């Protein structure tokens, strides 16, 4: 592998794209060139990287010939449209969309859980859904000690999961309501300010939405546990940034709370936040801008002798998206897995 790592960000002007730029600088990623790509609407904008203004280019068929790594965060349709071109150019794509997550030829990676899966890539690596990442980082350390039989999870998902425009919409709606006006939804189907509603992704014939099924199917793939029982209820809440999750775990045998707390206190990517005297546990306000997933309120499930309950908050844009992608990129550098020799077999 060449020591000269040339990186492109596809979707550079979005909420996750700008976070990717910040993290590449903050973590001193070993790149020599950074190309910012977006739609023609954003071409010509400038973004700051290491004190220099970089101009955003419109993505085109010739955009990938001089890059080794593409961090894609422009949506599933865009990723599907450009994936073959990226791989044919000899670059590796770390994709933040849902386009390839369940493709059997594409590794789905959370570096704290399954870093070895990166060795199997054929030009594309998928970044999991934000809620899946946050939950996985928190519960996999326990799963390693004693396999989990069943996961029940309820999510409290912030506006940031729908992008920068959704975050702005909540601000505008909040001000409108405080001024006695009726809020107008545009990004979300209903007003989110001072409100909440079940996740608005499409429902299947069993009543589960797409977001909930992502948590089911992606967790099974990442954990390498195809029969793991998972059920999720995903809810949008009027929080600008950082998701929270209430998680119930069932094991084959009782799992001591003190042991679980000890394991999570040492787990990579986890920060234990528990002050029982002051009833202080993870909050999205404190998780915002943080790399770690904040975990706390670990307790015995009083309804089941083999159950544990826990609560988490994690930055959806950070660890739930951009940070995980950059960590995958760092993994590729560390393991010398750039410049794939085979062309990926991509499912539509």
Automatic annotation (TrEMBL):
Domain (Semialdehyde dehydrogenase NAD-binding) ranges: 6-121
Q: How does it assemble?
A: Homodimer.
What family does this belong to?
Belongs to the aspartate-semialdehyde dehydrogenase family.
Pfam families named in the record? Semialdhyde_dh, Semialdhyde_dhC
Q: Which domain of life is it from?
A: Bacteria
Q: Which residues of the sequence carry a binding annotation for substrate?
A: 157, 210, 236
A molecular function (GO) term: NAD binding
Q: What keywords tag this UniProt record?
A: Amino-acid biosynthesis, Diaminopimelate biosynthesis, Lysine biosynthesis, Methionine biosynthesis, NADP, Oxidoreductase, Threonine biosynthesis
Show the NCBIfam families listed in the entry.
asd_B, PRK14874.1
**Which lineage ranks, top first, belong to the organism behind this chain?**
Bacteria, Bacillati, Cyanobacteriota, Cyanophyceae, Spirulinales
Q: Pathway, according to UniProt?
A: Amino-acid biosynthesis; L-methionine biosynthesis via de novo pathway; L-homoserine from L-aspartate: step 2/3; Amino-acid biosynthesis; L-lysine biosynthesis via DAP pathway; (S)-tetrahydrodipicolinate from L-aspartate: step 2/4; Amino-acid biosynthesis; L-threonine biosynthesis; L-threonine from L-aspartate: step 2/5
EC number(s) in its UniProt entry? 1.2.1.11
Q: Which residues form the active site?
A: 130, 243
Q: Which residues bind phosphate?
A: 101
Q: Which GO terms describe its biological process?
A: 'de novo' L-methionine biosynthetic process; diaminopimelate biosynthetic process; isoleucine biosynthetic process; lysine biosynthetic process via diaminopimelate; threonine biosynthetic process
Q: Which source organism?
A: Lusitaniella coriacea LEGE 07157
Reaction catalysed?
Answer: L-aspartate 4-semialdehyde + phosphate + NADP(+) = 4-phospho-L-aspartate + NADPH + H(+)
Per UniProt, NADP(+) binds at: 13-16, 41-42, 160-161, 316
The identity of this protein, by name, is Aspartate-semialdehyde dehydrogenase
* Record PANTHER family: ASPARTATE-SEMIALDEHYDE DEHYDROGENASE, DEHYDROGENASE, PUTATIVE-RELATED
This chain's function reads: Catalyzes the NADPH-dependent formation of L-aspartate-semialdehyde (L-ASA) by the reductive dephosphorylation of L-aspartyl-4-phosphate.
């Amino acid at each position: 592998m060449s020591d000269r790592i040339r990186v492109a960000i596809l979707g550079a002007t979005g909420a996750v794209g700008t976070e990717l730029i910040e993290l590449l600088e903050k973590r001193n990623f070993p790149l020599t060139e950074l190309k910012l790509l977006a739609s023609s609407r954003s071409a010509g904008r400038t973004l700051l990287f290491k004190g220099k203004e970089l101009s955003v280019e419109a993505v085109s068929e010739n955009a990938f010939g001089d890059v080794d790594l593409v961090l894609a965060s422009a949506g599933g349709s865009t990723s599907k449209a450009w994936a073959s071109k990226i791989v044919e150019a000899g670059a590796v794509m770390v994709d933040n969309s849902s386009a390839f997550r369940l493709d059997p030829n594409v590794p789905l990676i959370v570096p704290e859980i399954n870093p070895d899966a990166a060795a199997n890539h054929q030009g594309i690596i998928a970044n999991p859904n934000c809620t899946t990442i946050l939950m996985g980082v928190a519960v996999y350390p326990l799963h390693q000690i004693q396999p989990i039989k069943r996961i029940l999870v309820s999510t409290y998902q912030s506006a940031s999961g729908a992008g920068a425009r959704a975050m702005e919409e909540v601000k505008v709606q909040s001000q409108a309501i405080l001024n006695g006006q009726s809020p107008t939804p545009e990004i979300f189907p209903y007003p989110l300010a001072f409100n909440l509603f079940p996740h608005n992704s499409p429902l299947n014939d069993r009543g589960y939405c797409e977001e909930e099924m992502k948590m089911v199917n992606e967790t099974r793939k990442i954990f390498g546990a195809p029969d793991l029982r998972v059920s999720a209820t995903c809810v949008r809440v009027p929080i600008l940034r950082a998701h929270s999750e209430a998680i119930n775990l069932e094991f084959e045998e009782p799992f001591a709370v003190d042991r679980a707390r000890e394991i999570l206190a040492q787990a990579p990517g986890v920060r234990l936040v528990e002050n029982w005297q002051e009833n202080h546990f993870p909050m999205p306000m404190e998780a915002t801008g943080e790399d770690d997933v904040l975990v706390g309120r670990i307790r015995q499930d009083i309804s089941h002798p083999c159950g544990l309950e826990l609560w988490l908050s994690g930055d959806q844009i950070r660890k739930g998206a951009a940070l995980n992608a950059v960590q995958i990129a760092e993994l590729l550098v560390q393991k010398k897995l750039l410049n794939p020799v085979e062309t990926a077999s991509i499912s539509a």
